[in-house]
Predict the 3D structure of the following.
Amino acid sequence: MITYEEAKKLLAEYGQEHILRYYGELSAEEQSSLLAQIEKIDFSILGALDSEHNAALQRGKIEPIEAVTMADIAKNSGEYRELGLEAIKAGKVAAVLLAGGQGTRLGFDKPKGMYNVGVTRELYIFECLINNMMKVVRETGEWIHLCVMTSEKNNEDTVGFFREKDFFGYNSDYVHFFVQDMAPSVDFSGRIYMESRSRISSSPNGNGGWFSSLVRSGLLAELKANGVEWLNVFGVDNVLAKIADPLFIGAIIKSGAQSGSKVVAKSAPEERVGVMCLEDGKPSIVEYYEMTDEMLTQRTADGGLAYKYGVILNYLFSIAKLEDINKTKMPIHTVDKKIPYMDENGGFISPDEPNGHKFEALILDMINMHDSCIPYEVERDREFAPIKNPDGVDSVVSARKLLEENGVTL
Ligand code: UTP
């Protein structure tokens, strides 16, 4: 582990020496815990506060992108399915569940996947996702490796829950957990907050950190040794997510592209969803708040929205390309946030207003790091039931309705 002297030198480079202010007063255990935290922090992330970094986040020329539409898929379904099933049966596809988020909007104090969406019986979000995977396992007769990304904050609860529920019938030899990295939280001048004399204030580093965390955990090497070539990455929110969908996998393999993204036609021009596009000729995702009114309402010759395809956090990536991407740094976004902290006098403050930034890498930025990514259109009411809020849009209430419409007993 890093020594006190090394930590001091490192912190001095970034103007964060205050982190060690109480070092001499800590117990031996607290001292080594603090050094371990310092060692794990990627301080270069603080560069995201520089104007130079922000300039690099500027958008290029945005244009509409062609998708593989539901009509195309219907026409070629036989071939796509065959190719996809072949890849799954050969063990070339693994799934990655991103479950490291804090789910603040849902306001549930446990990991989001532990939320019970059942009404007359228990049915947890994790259980819905496993049930969805089981359909492909039954169809192919093959277990598919599932890597679950947690964060330091929810790993213990998540792993404990899967064990308690006996992995909801999934083969536990095929379920692997890995913990995503943390990023420090800073005040508006870039000074890292402390939660206590020995704890640095930090939060999960965003869902874009998933691949580097997978590599660091050693799991990627294991998957590759088992012959895995493709990763189907999905979020914990969508209880209707079709995972390791043979048609999707087959369509992307057939296209020769480096990646694919499941998309749904937007419900309305102003729907708050990121859409696929071309940016300077390369695939990209533009967030709803980045779109001008003109882009929101622009139509194609056939009358459809020009920027029509919303992403649903279900991607297929080739490992070879991801390894290539991992050699370069991801863009880092800063988010204003209320950060509880220890003040100058050692008192604990819980602010009512945002008092600093947290740093996040976003998986959607990975799309623009690819030369090719196929938007693959799926039926919204069959594959998209996100749970972000307790009620209203994208909520427990709307997802329950959609689950029932899809034949799931609640
Ligand atoms: P969201 O953007 O919905 O964030 O994550 P969140 O933290 O879960 O929820 P809110 O915004 O606080 O309400 C989209 C997906 O990315 C994962 C989430 O678990 C979810 O599957 N995620 C997000 C991570 O795995 N790690 C992160 O650091 C952030």
Summary: The domain at 41-405 is CATH 3.90.550.10 (Spore Coat Polysaccharide Biosynthesis Protein SpsA; Chain A). The chain has a mean pLDDT of 95. The first helix runs from residue 4 to 13. The first strand starts at residue 62 and ends at 63.
